[in-house]
Amino acid sequence: MTKFNGFETRISAIFVDIRNSTELFADADRDTVSRIVRSFANPFVRKADVAAICNVHPSTAGKIVNDLVEKGILRETTGKKRNQMFVCDEIMRVLDSY
């Protein structure tokens, strides 16, 4: 965002506390973990986004997202079976507090 498009902001850092992250990432390699965590830069994500970010097959991305939904980290927002959008409510709460 720049002054030219009408937005100006300053953000030092956003810290995301992923509950039980030790258990969540116990069997994953560091590259995969960094890609998953990077996907939290946007509080909204689709399974296709996770597949692209993590460089994994779409079915693997689906399993990752489903695990995060089961653990309460992500929540499905569309109510659809296809083209679902998921949100991380904890990130949204942080963003809404500013």
Question: How would you describe this structure to a colleague?
Answer:
This protein is mainly α. The chain has five helices and three strands, in the order H-H-E-H-H-E-E-H. Strands 1-3-2 form a three-stranded antiparallel β-sheet. The radius of gyration is 15 Å and the shape is globular.
Shape: globular
Q: What amount of the residues lies in strands?
A: 5-15%
Q: Whole-Å distance between the termini?
A: 17 Å
The overall pLDDT average reads 76
Q: Unreliable stretches, pLDDT < 50, 5 or more residues?
A: none
Order of helical and strand elements: HHEHHEEH
Oligomeric state: single chain
| Class inferred from helices and paired strands | mainly alpha
Number of strand segments: 3
Numbering strands along the chain, what is their spatial order in the largest sheet? 1-3-2
Quickly count the helices: 5
The helix fraction, in percent, is 40-55%
Radius of gyration: 15 Å
Biggest sheet features:
3 strands, antiparallel
